[in-house]
Each structure stands twice: as C-alpha cells, then as structure tokens.
Amino acid sequence: MLANRRNKTSFQITIHALIWLLLLLFPYFLSSNDILDLIRTLKFTWIPMFFYAVIFYLNYFVLIDKALFKQKIFFFIAVNLIFILVFTWIHVEVKDFLNSIYEVKSVDGLKRNPQPTRLFVYKDIIAMMIPIIISFAVKTTEKWSKAEKEKKENEKEILKSELQHLKYQLQPHFFFNSLNTIYALIERSPTLAQQTVHDLSKLMRYLLYDTEVGKAKLSDEIEFMKQYINLMKLRTSDKTIVKANFPVVSDQYFITPLLFISLIENAFKHGISSTQNSEIMFNLVVEGKKVSFFAENKNFPKNDNDKSGSGIGMNNLKKQLDISYPNKHTFKTNVEDGLFKVILEVYID
Q1: Do residues 253 and 347 touch, judged by C-beta distance below 8 A?
Q2: What CA–CA distance (Å, rounded) separates 176 from 172?
C-alpha cells in the first residue's frame, strides 16, 4: 500500500510538472528570437505563470483544506486577496522596470503608447482568480473521489460481514438437519449412520474452509449439493422419488457458495409426505454467464405448530442474493397444480 501511494504521488508530480512545462514552453515556441518578443513573453506569460503557480499550490495544499473546507471563509478570502494584490503590484513594478530598460516599439519604428496601467491591474487581478477556481475544482473532485472510494470500501466490508453472518447462520442450521438424519439412521442402520457421519465431516470441511474465500468453484458447489442431496435422501421412505440433474462444468466458473442449499432444504422440508407419494426434482443449467437452478416438489405445507420450517434458510437466501448479486438475479416461486416451483437465475462474473 505504501508503494502504491508513493507511485501515485510520483505520477501526480510528473503530471503537474509536464503541464507547467508545456504552459511555459508553448508561448516561447510561438515567439521569435527577437529580444523584444522574449521580453514580452517574460512580462505577459512567464512572470504571471509563476504567480499563478504559487496561488494554485497555496490553495491546493494549504488554504482549501485548512480554511475553506473548515468554514473559515473570511480567512480564505483575506489571504488570497493579499497574495493577489501583492503579486499584482510586483507584476506592475517588474513590467515598468523592463519597459525602462527595453523600449517597446511598434512595427513602424515609432514608440508605442503603453496601455493604461489600470487596465493591466484589472487583468492581473481577474487572471489570478483563475488558479484559485481551478485548485478548488481539482481539490473538490479529489475529495469527492476519495469519499466515494471510502464509501465503496465501507460498503464492501459491510457486505462481507453480512455474508459471513449469513453463512454462520446457515452452518448450524445445516448441521442441525444433518444430525436429525443421522439420529434417524442410528437405530435402523448403525453402519450406514457411521458412513453418514464420515460423509458429513466432508461436507462440514467444505462449509468451514472452502467457502471462506468468498467465491467457490461452481463444480465444487455442485459436488457439495450432490452429497447433501444423498444425505437428505436417507431420511426419506420408498414413497419419495428424488431426481437431480447437475451438469459437468469447468473450473472457470465461480459462484457465491451455499447459494442453492436453502432451496434444496426447503424442497425436502415441504415436499415430503409420510402418507402420500412424493417427488422432488432439482435441475441446474449453465448458459454462458447465467446459472439457472430449478426446484420442483409437491406442496405439503407445514402446520403452524411445526417449527422445523422456520424459514431461516429462505430468508438468508434472499439477503444473500441482494448482497452478492444486486440487479443480477431473478428469484421466483409459485404453486401450480399442487406443485411448488422455484426458479433462481444468477449472472456470475
């Protein structure tokens, strides 16, 4: 960071130096080698340019920050006025001195009548206000740019914290459901319960470590969903059919981890009946930068006394979509012919 700051400072110094160098050299190249022409360039360009530079950097580095931005308006105006008047007086004296040494003549050789000194004074005063305006514009733009950058950084940190919070909410929720599955297996099939504990450890390792990077490979996320569906299928009876269609994708696709897991949990919670035949379907499609997830299950709403479907996962999903994919996602749910259907589309980077 320190190196970047030094490079930025060096770049700014170089740009400023080049601008002033061009401003100084441009009138020189337009002038002839005649001594009187050079004197005119000195009087009307180089000397005023020096005063402009002093006023510009006085405001840029000191007055705007120390006075104007701190509401010390009178002090800001007074200091600038003093410098403008002093520089104007110096400029007039220098021009008079140079005129006394080098007599300026017109083209026909006759002495030219000098313009009134008062006119030059007015021009100098107005001209020296321009560097103040420019320095204010530059400083204000830099301040606004810095404020916007800090705002974006703060928003990024807030979003990162929010995502972390949502993930910490999801992990215990996921672990709780998995333990219920294992508990149901212990009496029925101890061997299968042991294998399930081993599989669960792999899933938890993915939750705890592989999802810490902010983005996960879509291929790893698909593998996680497959294992999780297999884990949840252990809780179902022969009356439940689970279909899952996940494509094989390359490692170039990255996505926010655990994005679809709440939809899978929701399907198993509300799509299974202990007395009726049930069918759950999951489908994931990748088309360019668009990832579409479809879930469909029979609609068996939980009664009000059943707290297993508290809605934590779905609420977290909506927050996660707003944070990770603002204006880059579509989330729709509807019940049609007794089927609860979900379509989630996200546009990944």
Answers
A1: no
A2: 6
Instruction: Copy the structure tokens of residue 159.
Output: 């979003």
Residue 220 reports pLDDT greater than 70: yes
Calculate the alpha carbon distances from 193 to 40, 117, 178, 197 in Å: 97, 101, 11, 6
Each residue's pLDDT tens digit, 187-200:
778 888 888 888 88
Q: What is the mean pLDDT of the chain?
A: 80
Read off the pLDDT of residues 2-33 as tens digits, 9 standing for 90 and up.
556 666 667 777 777 777 777 767 666 666 66
pLDDT of residue 345: 96
Domain ranges of the chain: 2-151, 153-347
Q: What angle do CA 220, 329, 280 make, to 5 degrees?
A: 60
**Angle of helix 47-58 relative to helix 73-101, nearest 10 degrees?**
170
Tell me the chain's radius of gyration from C-alpha atoms: 37
Most confident of 85-99, 126-140, 174-188, 314-328: 126-140
344, 335, 225, 349: which is closest to 292 by C-alpha? 344
**Contact predicate 337/346, CB 8 Å:** no
Beta carbons of 132 and 55 less than 8 angstroms apart: yes
* CATH annotation of 153-347: 3.30.565.10
Distant-in-sequence, close-in-space partners of 127: CB < 8 Å, separation ≥ 6: 48, 52
**Is residue 264 within 8 Å of residue 225, measured between CB atoms?**
yes
Which tokens is 116 given?
């009134």
Cβ neighbors of 41 (< 8 A, separation 6 or more) are: 27, 28, 31
d(CA 294, CA 272): 17
Residue 247 vs residues 78, 230, 232, 280: alpha-carbon distances, Å:
72, 17, 20, 18
